[in-house]
Amino acid sequence: MTGNMITQGEVDHARNGFDPTAMLTDWDTGRVSRLANGQRLREYTITAIDKEIEIAPGLFFPAWTYNGRVPGPSLRATEGDRIRIRFVNAGSHVHTLHFHGIHSARMDGVPGAGEVAPGEAFTYEFDAEPFGCHLYHCHSLPLKRHIHKGLYGAFIVDPDPQRHPEHEPAARSRLLGSEANARWQEFVMVMNGFDTNFDEENEIYAVNSVAHAYVNRPIRLERARPVRIYLINVTEFDPVNSLHLHANFFDYYDHGTTLTPTLRTVDTVMQCQAQRGILEFSFADHEPGQYMFHAHQSEFVELGWMSLFEVV
Amino acid sequence: MHPRLWFSLLLPPLMLGLALLWFQMTQPLEWLGVSPPPLEELTVERTIIDDDGLALKVRAGGSEPMRIAQVQVDGAYWRFHQEPAGELSRGQAAWLQIPYPWVEDELHEVTLVTGTGVTFGHTIEVAEPTPQPSIEQLSGYGVLGLFVGVLPVALGMCLLPALQHAGARGFQFTLALTLGLLAFLLVDTLEAGLELAAEAASLFQGPALVWLTALVAFLALLGVGRRHGLPPEGRILAWYIALGIGLHNLGEGLAIGGAFAAGAGALGTFLVIGFTLHNLTEGVAIAAPLTRLSIPAWMWVGLVALAGLPAVLGTWLGAYAFAPHWSALFLGLGAGAILQVCVEVADYLRRTAVAEAMSPVSGISVLGVTAGVGIMYATALLVQV
User: How far apart are the CA of A298 and the nearest CA of chain B, in angstroms?
Assistant: First the structure.
């Protein structure tokens, strides 16, 4: 479908230690328990590790990673949960975990507040607020280098249906583990890029790090079930990134912080760095086949950000 | 041989072997506390553009074997076939075949991405189909060579009878003019050689290649020319001048053939006529030491052939088998040969002046050198792009 315009060869996902296909759906919900006040506690451990990763066949990038993968683990919680993250820095530089969410200054994960020297650890603690599609990333200096080297990940906060009686069905469909949620096909997609020669321009663009990963292994969609994509842009050096869906339209929830769409019936959405949102669509009335989706900056498409859905 | 002689001959290589072994075993570089990543270097030596797409001949010059992981054309990853496949060790060359739908007369940018993410760019300034060796094309490039090499030299040498009528002062002027022409050619050849040297893979040390071949060629020709103790003059000197100019024209042919093949021959006819005019004076240079002699027709033909035909060979090589390091080598040789005739022409001028009780550094000779350099500079304006 992409002819000769594609990276050549195959990436060894086993050697990388992460698989872009598995990454679409492997939510990290943490170790769950209850606090004395009845609040749900989710505990995570995240370790910063220097690691060389293969981002296109035969092309290796000296990444800085959370838990040995880029993007880092996709943390998923429900609004109001207490989040407790032990962050261990096993890397060679200082790092932080800076969450896009609501928290105190002490927990902001910036130089002077939760920055962790190599070999040390820090525990971040806050409540998961507000519900939506968020992200976390390293906020150590210099920023550009710490982000584009690979220190970022998805932070998804599901709405608590009881708090949103006016949109209860919509909230319930987003709540991981609920019956309403089970029929949805949910995927997390982090749009990123890699500047392999450090000239402040990306040589590789991708979703979830590996160029053309979803061309070589299209994402399987069942027609009967609706689709929800948690889309996050962390691309460094370029002002925006985008997603264009072929042959279909979607509803879009900017930042995922609302239960009614902020954009209706669009087929392209643009995000600046750290902007994110939720896409909802369905292929129920389509014939089976391969449907493209990709950035609608042709430059990014030609440098790896091209993907396929295999609708069955 | 005497045992001590043996010992003194064998000791240095033995000691060197031991020192290298010690270096390998103890790795003293580790004491420096640095572990730099391997150096990588890729040079594109040839580009072939045809119906199958683009083909590049690349040569690796890394400190360790390196791998071409991906290829971008105009900022898009593209499939490619590498022959031979796999890692490229230092100095090894390989062909990359890229099935890219290139656009005639437009610019294309190829970026080679190595396994470590280093990128090497190669610009195809104007995409034109690479000449395929055919009778028609070979003839075309041959004619090009004849026009820039043989024709002007022959025309220039036709001035010989006119020069033969000149007196002692006229003779000195002609020799001085020749010296000026040769001085210009020397600078021009060195410059062209160094320019090509910069395009060659760095492990060939292009600039050193040019300077050193020039030096060796100069010394060798000077030595051969004076092997009987006497400096060459008259017919012999004419042959040497023809050789130097021939090597220069070989380089010029390489440049012209390469330019036409790479689509840079946009000036076309203008460029060829420019070179013809520019090279007219080369014939005068060869004729200069012959002004007081009569020469047989075969020698006249021979001199023209030696000075002019290499341009034909050059255009063929330039069009079909361009490799910057070989071209740099030839131009280095040419520079050496021209320097030799510069020295010999200057010496000849000095001797003839002394014999006729004139000063070698007279107003006439200064005027002659200036005129020679000036004519070459002015006609070069036509061929500089």
Answer: 9
Residues 6+ apart with CB under 8 A from A144: A200, A236, A237
Tell me, yes or no, if B133 comes closer than 8 A to chain A by beta carbon. no
Residue B138 pLDDT class (50, 70, 90 cuts)? confident
Owner of token pair 């099935």 = B99
Residue A8 in domain:
no
Answer whether 0.90 is exceeded by the pTM.
Answer: no
Nearest CA distance, A195 vs chain B (angstrom): 8
Task: Give the DSSP letter of residue A104.
Answer: -
* Tokens read off for B341: 């005739």
Tokens of B283: 């014939």
Say yes or no: B36 contacts chain A, CB-CB below 8 A: no
DSSP state letter for A183: T
Q: Domain ends where: A135, A155, A180? A: A180
Same structural domain for residues A256 and A196? yes
Report yes or no on A98 lying in a domain: yes
A78 DSSP assignment: E
- The answer, for B117 touching chain A at a CB cutoff of 8 Å, is yes
B113 Cα to chain A: minimum distance (Å): 8
Answer whether B145's CB lies under 8 Å from B316's CB. yes
Q: What is the pLDDT of residues A241-287, one digit of tens each?
A: 999 999 999 999 999 999 999 999 999 999 999 999 999 999 999 99
Which of A6, A60, A212 minimises the CB distance to B117?
A60
What range defines the domain where residue A160 resides? 13-180
Residues A208 and A103 in one domain: no
B132 contacts: CB under 8 Å, gap ≥ 6: B50
* Among candidates B77, B115, B117 on the partner chain, residue whose Cβ is nearest the Cβ of A302: B77
Average pLDDT, chain B: 86
Check A59 against B70: CB less than 8 A apart: yes
Is B75 within 8 Å of A6 when comparing Cβ atoms?
no
A2 falls within a domain? no
Residue A52 touches chain B, beta carbons under 8 Å: no
Using the Cβ of A304 and the Cβ atoms of chain B, whether some distance falls under 8 Å is answered with yes
User: Does the structure show a pLDDT above 80 at A50?
Assistant: yes
Taking the Cβ of residue A221 and every Cβ of chain B, the question of whether any pair is shorter than 8 Å is answered with: no
A56 to B71: CB separation less than 8 angstroms, yes or no: no
Contact A243, A200 (CB under 8 A): no
A100 and A226 housed in the same domain? no
Please check whether residue B102 touches A, CB under 8 A.
no
Query: Is A246 contained in some domain?
Result: yes
Chains A & B: contacts with CB separation below 8 Å: 64
Confidence of residue A85 (pLDDT cuts 50, 70, 90): very high
Rg (CA), chain A: 19
Q: How far A306 CA sits from the closest chain B CA (Å)?
A: 11
What is the distance of C-alpha A292 from the center of its chain?
19
Q: Is the ipTM of this complex over 0.85?
A: yes
Alpha-carbon distances, residue A214 vs A19, A210, A290, B29, B266 (angstroms): 11, 9, 11, 45, 45
Do A99 and A117 share a domain, yes or no? yes
In terms of CA atoms, which chain B residue is nearest residue A53? B116
CATH of the domain at A144: 2.60.40.420
Q: Do A58 and B115 touch (CB under 8 A)?
A: yes
CB B80 within 8 A of CB B45: no
